[in-house]
Amino acid sequence: MEEDLISKKELLDLTGISYGQLYRWKRKQLIPESWFIRKSTYTGQETFFPKERMLGRIQHILSKKDDLSLDELAGKLSDMSSVHKQLLTIKEVRERNIVSSVTLERYGQCDKDEHKYSFEQLIHLVAVDLLLGKGELSLEEADLLHRTLSVNRTQFEGKRWELFFARKMGVSFFLQAPAPSELVFDEGVRLISRITLEDLTEQLQGKLG
């Protein structure tokens, strides 16, 4: 099962950035070269990108490019270790707009002002919020997702993982697996979304700045 990709044309149309900006950011190492994936299509060779990671990175660059030079931004983006050490209070989660108020009120520990969210807890909130924001799951399904991630937290702590969200005959289910995974579903299963820990970390890093 291949990672969810987005073509270069779709990316430029969706984000509004230019071809020149895209490749200037690549030269400045704001976007890893490994994210430029050449694939054969019926029209010839085209460039694709890991969709969620690329959209998160571009959102981050656009939000910071007026405050930092491209070299300064490249330095911050290369330092992923700081993201993993983050501990945020609920006030800081709100102020930095890490997730929507709906997600925070439903899944955050809003009655505990002193509670500090770890990297794993923040990632779980971002995962739920990302899929809710896309309109891909109901609140009941979001409850199941958050519960699944919380139950598996210890098992996957410090490891790379992927999350699969699928439906079969109207029944939803989530599957969290070590990354990279090569899962094969039967033909009755419709895969709604596939997200990696790297995708979610990219989204979180963009919010942390």
UniProtKB/TrEMBL annotation:
It comes from the Bacteria. This is YhbD family protein. It comes from Paenibacillus sonchi.
